[in-house]
Amino acid sequence: MRKNRHFLTGILLLVTIGLHAQTTVVTGKVTDMTGTPVPAATIRIKGGKGGTSADFQGSFTLKCSPNATLIISGIGYETREVRVTSGTVNVSLNTDSKSLSEVVVTGVGIATSKKKLGISVESVTADKLPPAPTASIDQALVGKIPGAQISSISGNPGDPVNIMLRGVNTLNGGTKPLIMVDGLQISATDINSLDLSNIERVEVVQGAASASLYGAQGANGVIQIFTKKGKRGGTAINFSSSYASNSYINSGHVKKAELNAWKTDASGNFVSTGGTPVSFDQYGDLNGLSYEYGGPTRYGILNKLNTDSHPYGTNLKYYDHFKQVFQTGNTYNNILSISGASDRFDFNVSAANNHTLTPVLKAGYLDRSNLSANLGVELFKGFHLRSTTQLIYTKNTITPGLGGPGGFGYGQGNSLGNNGNVFSFLNTSPFFDLNYKLADGTHPAYQVASFVSINAFNPYYTKEYANGIDNKIDVVQSFDADYKVNRFVEFDAKYGINYRNENSRWTYANQSGNLNAAYQYDYAGEFAPDLNGEIDNWQYNTTFQNFIGSAFFRTDFQNDFHSRLPITTATQVAFDYRKNKYTEYDSYGLGLAMAPPIDIVHTATQAAAQDDVVTFITYGYLVNQTIDFGSWGGLAGGFRSDFSSAFGEGSKAFTFPHVNGYILPSSFGFWSNGRISNILSTFKLRAAYGEAGIQPGPFDRYPTISGGDLGTHQAYSLPVVNHNPFLNVEVSKEFEAGTDLTIPVNTQGSIFTAVNVSFTYWHKKSEKVIYTVNQPLSTGASGLLDNAFDLHSQGYQFQVNTPVVQTRNFTWNFTTNWGHQISMIDKVEGGQPIPVGPIDGNSLYVYLVPGYRIGQLYGYKTIHSFDQTFQDGKTKYFPNGNNGGQYTMVEGNVVDTGTMAIQFTAEKYPLGNTDPKFNAAFINEFSFKNFLSFSFQFDWIYGSHIYDETKEWMYRDGIDGDFAKTVNIAGKVGAFTAYRASAYYALWGSTHGAGNEAPKDYFLYPASFLRLRNAAAAIDFAQLYHIKGVKRLQLVLSGRNLWTKTKYPGMDPEISSLTPNSSYTRGVDNSSIPNLKSYQASVNVGF
Amino acid sequence: MSKNKIYYFILFLAIFATASCKKQLQVGDPNDPTLPGNVTDETGLMALAQGGVYINGFANGDGWLGNSYFSLPRAYLELMADNIGADASNNQITTVGYPDYFIKDDGTKVINGSPSVAILRGYNVLGGSGNNPLFFQWQNMYALNAACNEILRVAPLIKLSGDGATRLKTIQAWCYWWKGYAYSQIGTMYYSGLIQDDPYNKTNNHYLPKDSILAQSNYYLNLCSTTLSAINNSADYSTVVGELIPDFCQVGNGGVLTTTMWQHNINTLLARNIMLNKLAPFVNGDPAATITKSSMSAMSSGDWNNVLTLATNGIQSGDYVFTGRSIATNGFFTASTGNVGAETTGPNISATFKIGVRYLANFKPGDQRFTQNFATYSTYNNPFYGTPYNILDSLDQSTTGVYVLGNKQVGQYEVIIAGSLEENLLMLAEANIRLGNIDAGLAFVDQERTLQGAGVAAVSGTGLTLAQAMKELTMERRAALIFRGLAFYDARRWGWTYDIGVGGGQYGQMLYNTDGSYDTNVTVNYNFMDYWDIPADETQLNPPGTGSSPILNPNY
């Protein structure tokens, strides 16, 4: 009834106005659905001249005829037409769901609709980010960005992900992109420390063409995170609580062999060569063990009579070490947020806590608390101030050696936890109980059985004698002052300070009382030269500052100059200053007392291991000009000049140009009115060229000598690697071209209404790439750090999105993301191939060779055919074929029946690249009415390979599960240890010695996988039962990494044990901690 | 605030930012010293003169098995002398010293499918350092040499305190000594080498035969000696030497050498340069054995006389020698893995290297060094290297009076870097025996055994024949000089590491079987490369110029 009254009043007013005036003054306000003002919305009079734009509060005033129709549009909103019915017109705009209308700022300088971009920018909004138990943004982004390879390489709590957006731009600098929060770089804080629940949106620009605005640090692309702001519509209170249970993936069903080839007596008891039953001694070691054939020596494994045919269970039991070490952990997440906004003020304050118990022996936890505040105020008309604060406190008690933080350089981020002892059970023979206790109740350190289990070390011992405590405080604070002087001119100044203070303390108890450790002289420690224990103090501090001052000049030829040309221009001039200061002070005390107090003061000796200050400064000037021609097309171009303390001798600038443009043929009349619009309703072409750089390491250009002490005397030594003082920035020059299009399929229906496609091809050359080239040893040094490499990369990426079903009650939205990329080496200074390694601490090398892909593993090939030749292509390995039955084929490998050894090439080959041929994600989202939703995401990584060194190590003593598998060798069937072990030992016709642990393609496995990354089902009881005063009462059941389909025989095909984000050492599973499989239940409450 | 004020403020900020930034870009590297910034005075020079030797020469690049020149690089010499064995796959330690074949007591011939020469050559590739035994000595010694070149270049430019001339001479003598040492190590190990005396360390590609490298060693050792002779201010000399030798090494046989002591050390090294690089075969008990194909010529009586003369003026009792020791922190190697002796100490199951039964056979019954140093508490089984023996840890010579073979305790074990009194005595012994003064020679063997606290009966004056005397000598030299970087060269010049086909081999050897029994008459054909090829890390980056000496030993 009330509505009707208003309506009648309106009609009456309209009539009255119509009678009395030809023009009228209309005031109004443009808001979005939530009541938040839409600043700079455009208001035009339909069929007439003139118009205006709304101010920052969405308010406008306009003269028009009394019954005019206004066309109101805003970037990112659906355009609406409204008839003037009174002097006040308040309009609420719907957000535009079509992806091309999204507004992005990253890589473009001035917020622009995706429709008007010459570059590709990917964006993900908060509602598309899964509730990963880690509550971290890096994990949540996996699979979400088309083209980007974001892989979760470790399941250790707190470890970073690998991010490679577009190929390899640098060898030393890694693949990690520039990370920004609300327009400013963060350099001190790890991306996984940011609170996922506080994130509104993420934008990604992937290569130099699109990241050229970021100059000397943009070549690896940019990930920009936008935090949540308060919205109008009353104070909102949200609370969320979740619990997850986490266990490690073991998709390859990795286990140790349950059968063995040890000597037994008639009752199945394991006995020595003399027939005495084997026995454990007071040190927890096993004595008397022998192979059935070949006696008690390591090389008995190569005796061709031995088969894994004896079960455990008599005087030796079988222990599943994987189960003993990899247990089930859990995660709690609790989040509270309060937000709101008024005309001139908005706020969003939240507190979140994430608590994760490590599943590795449950040896500690990671506890992260985030306190965030985002406050905005309009001081006077057009002048806005915003302060964004994130305070993060992280406590990590995970034991050093079992995944705990700390160690040299750890405070610089991008490091895996210290996990060296997690997999030290790999060489432990399965008849050892890791939880075995010596007579005094302590665990043995070194469980050895004379000639097997040689490389064992007991993680239970580590847990018993080592402990760690790491405290980290992060502050991410930014201020933004923005003054929109008039519709032409806007000034913006941003200053951000990012601070991180981390202190990690490792304590290794005095172990001299441990019988086993004292006897074997094998102990846990970092610096200690003996068993007397130590305390290590790692102190890291980073302060990073970023100031960006910008001036924007905008013109609209139609509105401002009364021109008929529909041209709008935007000019950005900016100054950008960044300074990073990192300090690390590492000290230790050796020799702990047996009784408290256990502190450094009470150690026998003390020393400092490192006391470093690393300062890095860069600044640059940016000029960027964009010109748009209506909605038909546009051009942008400009340059950025950067200075840096790390290149150009600290005074020579480097300039990075860029240009891009787009054309939208579907916006022309002939198209939109023509039949072609039935086939392609939106069609856009875009192309961009840009240059961007990677900074050298802060001190790469400074030649130094090494300092230190010998005893009490200062000692200098000459460097092993010399530095080029004229080092330059690494430059990536990229061209990208792409299209965005919409194919209308079933425009009238509710099923498959349209398909949206976005495709980008890119090609880049990276020049002056910095790496150490070898020097002859007779110079006294072994290398020179120089701008030594040229690389190129290319690839493509695309996204297909379709609303599969859209009815009133049910929606189903489907998105798939694809990417392909390769990186090649074009040139190396001096033409020499550069062997890099060992990259794994053992014997695995990567060769950087012109003409090859980056990251080729090199090694020996398994011979699969009697026709195999040497690299000369002529000399045959087997000139006489099977040589009268000496050789035979087993599992596709040529095998010598005399030794049962697999035959390998004598020469090394590039074994292939480990990077995938493509990576893809499939995302489905369903919702029923407004209370039920369901979503799942599959990730598909195709064509990747992993060198399974974890398996190779278990081949050493013949304890990998493979050893229990039978084969047929020239008519004899059995689980021959000599056959299987030859993969580890054999080379060059020799059955032992030369080939031990040599890299062989036998251990390089295809690692393609399909993974159910996320699955979530949610029901909102507040909507279902219309609960008064409660906006949301949601129960969510979700899972992560629940299912994996792969042929990879290791635990997890996604992991890599090497340096995170390394450019060239990738795809090696050398005792890597697999990803977590999680089941999570959450409750979300909103008021 | 008016609009204009804001404009001015922004303009000011922009100008301020531009002007103030550029200076800031010269951040330097505050964490490390630089040559122009730090090696400008005596303190800096002394720091470089010490670190250039102990860090560049003996520590850098050695973080593989152990952490110094005295761990893995020296271990290869012990492995190829069959003093120790190894099981681990790391760095080819289990293959480099494995013989081509051995014949057991029952006539079984055990053939090695991957002979040492093939292993060395197969793994001699650029960047293969981890698996390339040829890499390490070359790398360390040229780093030592380059550091000395640098010190020699900058030393005269720096004003020194006190008697500056004496101090400069002392530092120069220090560099000449270590250059002489480096060339000695290179010339004794590799078939060819480079003479690299450029003050700016610009290298050259004129590979020279080993004899030229040894001649350059002699040149620098003699230059060191004449430089020392010219020093008469002993106070400034002692001060400088006291600072050059790390304080924690100035214990035991290490200390501030007088110029005379140092010259004795030089003479021992000069004698070594001759003796280690010429054949003096003693194969299968035959002092007159010959090797028909070798990279060395045979010792002449003139050579023996030269050795005798030099050794007579060599290291004397009470002389300090060049030693290395561990320290808890700030050392150049660690106690438990910094030298091959420590790496052979402890239970043989867990020790990196295992003390061999064929080494232990060189101790005579009742030898206190055997009784005190070894135990049989764990057994390591291997077809060739098997042993029931372990080197006991924590032995202390100052209380027992018996030489300690290995020790993992901080500061206790003394690494002999260059010559020692024992080596000098045994050179005197061998030269005398070879020159026909058998009893005079054996007296030096007795003297040396007494020095190490062996407690065995004297052999001098017992009427031993030349062959018997040579047996005593070779047994003692092997037993006493283990872990001193000499063992392979001895086995080489005595002919043992040569192929049986050219007159080499070892006969009547021990073998420990996995059932606990011993073979006692095993024939071993090692067939090792006598002088090593040059590592590819040099030759691929610095290919030989015309007229260069072969970079691969042409005899293999």
List the helices and strands and how they pair.
The complex is a heterodimer of chains A (1087) and B (556).
Chain A: H1 2-20, E1 24-32, E2 42-45, E3 51-53, E4 59-64, E5 69-73, E6 80-83, E7 88-93, E8 103-104, E9 112-113, E10 122-125, H2 137-140, E11 149-151, E12 162-164, E13 178-181, E14 184-185, E15 199-205, H3 208-211, E16 222-227, E17 236-248, E18 259-260, E19 279-280, E20 286-287, E21 310-311, H4 321-325, E22 329-341, E23 345-357, E24 365-380, E25 383-396, H5 459-465, E26 466-484, E27 489-508, H6 515-520, E28 534-556, H7 557-561, E29 567-590, E30 605-629, E31 633-644, E32 654-663, H8 669-672, H9 676-679, E33 682-694, E34 709-710, E35 713-714, E36 721-723, E37 730-744, E38 754-774, E39 783-806, E40 810-828, E41 834-836, E42 845-848, E43 856-862, E44 887-890, E45 893-896, E46 901-902, E47 904-913, E48 918-928, E49 932-942, E50 945-948, H10 949-956, E51 967-969, E52 972-974, H11 977-985, E53 1004-1006, E54 1009-1020, H12 1021-1024, E55 1032-1046, E56 1068-1069, E57 1076-1086
Parallel strand pairs in A: 1-7, 13-16, 36-39, 50-56
Antiparallel strand pairs in A: 1-4, 2-3, 2-5, 5-6, 8-9, 10-15, 11-12, 13-14, 15-16, 17-22, 17-57, 18-21, 19-20, 22-23, 23-24, 24-25, 25-26, 26-27, 27-28, 28-29, 29-30, 30-31, 31-32, 32-33, 33-37, 34-35, 37-38, 38-39, 39-40, 40-48, 41-42, 42-43, 43-47, 44-45, 45-46, 48-49, 49-54, 50-53, 51-52, 54-55, ...
Chain B: H1 3-24, H2 35-38, H3 42-57, H4 72-80, E1 84-86, E2 101-103, E3 109-111, H5 116-122, H6 133-154, H7 164-189, E4 192-193, E5 208-209, H8 210-229, H9 234-244, H10 259-275, H11 301-312, E6 323-324, H12 340-343, E7 353-355, H13 357-360, H14 368-373, E8 374-375, E9 390-391, H15 397-400, E10 415-416, H16 421-434, H17 438-451, H18 466-480, H19 487-493, E11 506-512, E12 518-525, H20 536-539
Antiparallel strand pairs in B: 1-7, 2-3, 2-12, 4-5, 6-10, 8-9, 11-12
